[in-house]
Amino acid sequence: MARARSWTLLYGRRKVGKTTLLRTCAPHDLYVLVGHGGGHAVVGDEVVPVEEAVREVGAVLRKGGVAVVDEFQRFPTRYWDLVASWSPRGVLIAAGSSYGIVHKVFDKSSPLLGLFSPLHIDIIAYEEVLAQVGDPLLAVVWRDPWAIPHISSVEELRERARDLALIARGLIGEVFTEEDRELTDTYWRAILLVAEGYWKSTDVAGALGLRGGLASASSILSKLSKMGVLRAVPTLGRERYYTVRSPVLSLILYAEAKYSVSDLGAAPPELPIGREVQFTVGEMLASYYGAVQRYSPREDIDVVLTRGRRRLWAFEVKLGPFTRPEAAEAVARLRKVAEKAGLVSLSERPPEVGDVSLGPRELYQMARELAKSRGVI
Q1: Range(s) for CATH 3.40.50 in the chain?
Q2: What are 240-289's pLDDT values in tens digits?
Q3: Which InterPro entries match (predicted)?
Q4: Architecture field, domain 161-266
Q5: DSSP 156
Q6: How many CB atoms lie within 10 A of CB 215?
Q7: Reported confidence tier of residue 2, pLDDT bands at 50, 70, 90
Q8: Cα 229 to Cα 170: distance, rounded to the nearest angstrom
Q9: Which terminus of the chain is less hemmed in, N or C, by CB atoms within 10 Å?
Q10: Given this model, what pLDDT does residue 148 score?
C-alpha cells in the first residue's frame, strides 16, 4: 500500500489483515487504535483518553502529515465535526471493522460526507495466496489470514475442527459486536444452514421456520452478506447462491452444523472442500477473464463466466484427475451452457478436449500473472 495521498476509509470484516496492512504497508506519522467503548485509545505504547488522541491526530494533520485511526467505528461521533474541519490538510486513514461505518460516514447528514474515499479490504484473493505458496489446495483455506498460524493443511483443519469451531463462533460474534448487532440464535442458525449447504433463501426460510417466511430469510441473508459473513453468488437464473464468504470458516461451520464438533469433540469424517475449491477457483477465473462469476444450479455447472448477456466460459472444477471419457462428457455438457468449455483439476492437467485445460501448474502461472499485475509479487 503506497503512501496515501487523500483521506481514505478502509473497511472490512475483522481479522482480514487491515491492521497489519496499515502498520507495515502504509507509511504514517501517527497510529491510533481506538479502544472498545470509544473512551480511550492506544497511541504508541500508551493508553490515553480519546480526547488526547484526537488532539494528536489534529496536530499531525495540520502539519500535513499522515495519521491512521484504527477501529474508527468506535471513534465518538461527537468529534466528527472537528475532524471535518481539518480537511483537506494532511492525510487521514480511518479503518473500520464494520460495514455499518461506511453508511454512517457517507450518510447525507454526516459531516464527513465527501471527505473520504472508501476502500474495501476483503479476505485475500486466491491468486495472491497461490502465487506465493504454490499449493492450490492450501491456498484455498489460507485466504483468511487468521487461519494461517493455526493450520498447515486441509487434513489438519479437519482434525482440529473442534478447536477451530470455537474460534469461528467468537470471530463471527466479534463481527456482530462491531456492527452493534447481537448474534442471535436465528442469525447463528442461518449461518450454519448456509455452511451446511442450504443456499437458497426459500430453503433457509423453511429450515428456520420464521414467522415472516421468505421475506425474513431473505432479509437475514442479505444483512449477513453486507456484513461480510456470507457471499451472494449470482446464478444463471434469478436466485442467489449464498455461501460463507471465507472458505476456511465455511468448512469449520459445516463441521459444526453437520457433526456438532464443538459439543461431541470428534473430528468430522469429511469436509466439503470441493465446494470451496469450486467457488474459490471460480473467483480467480473471473478475475483472469474479466468476467462475472455465476453458478448454474439447474445444470450443475461449477463455474459460468458472463459478460453482459454473453456466457463466455463454463468450467468443471475437480480436486482429482479427469479420465478422457470424463473430460469429453464434461466438455459436451459445458458447451450447452457457454461459448467455451474449460476443465480444471487440482491434481494434474486434464486431457485437452476442451478449449482450455488447467492443472496445478497452469493455475499457479495464472495466479502469478494476476498477482504481478497488482504489484503483489
Answers
A1: 8-120
A2: 999 999 999 999 999 999 999 999 888 999 999 999 999 999 999 999 99
A3: P-loop_NTPase
A4: Orthogonal Bundle (1.10)
A5: H
A6: 11
A7: low
A8: 13
A9: C
A10: 95
Separation of alpha carbons 131 and 344, rounded Å: 17
C-alpha–C-alpha distance, residues 57 and 22, integer Å: 16
pLDDT (mean) for 211-220: 89
- Which grid cell sits at 22? 496499515
Portion of the chain with pLDDT greater than 90, in percent = 83
User: 64 burial class (0-12, 13-18, 19+ CB within 10 angstroms)?
Assistant: exposed
Cα(83)–Cα(85) distance, rounded to whole angstroms?
5
Q: What is the pLDDT of residue 32?
A: 97
CB atoms within 10 A of CB 297: 13
Amino acid of residue 295: Y
Q: How far apart are CA 289 and CA 283, in angstroms?
A: 10
Residue matched to cell numbers 481539518: 86
Indicate the CATH number for domain 8-120. 3.40.50
Q: Say whether pLDDT at 10 is over 70.
A: yes
Residues of the chain with CATH 3.40.1350: 275-373
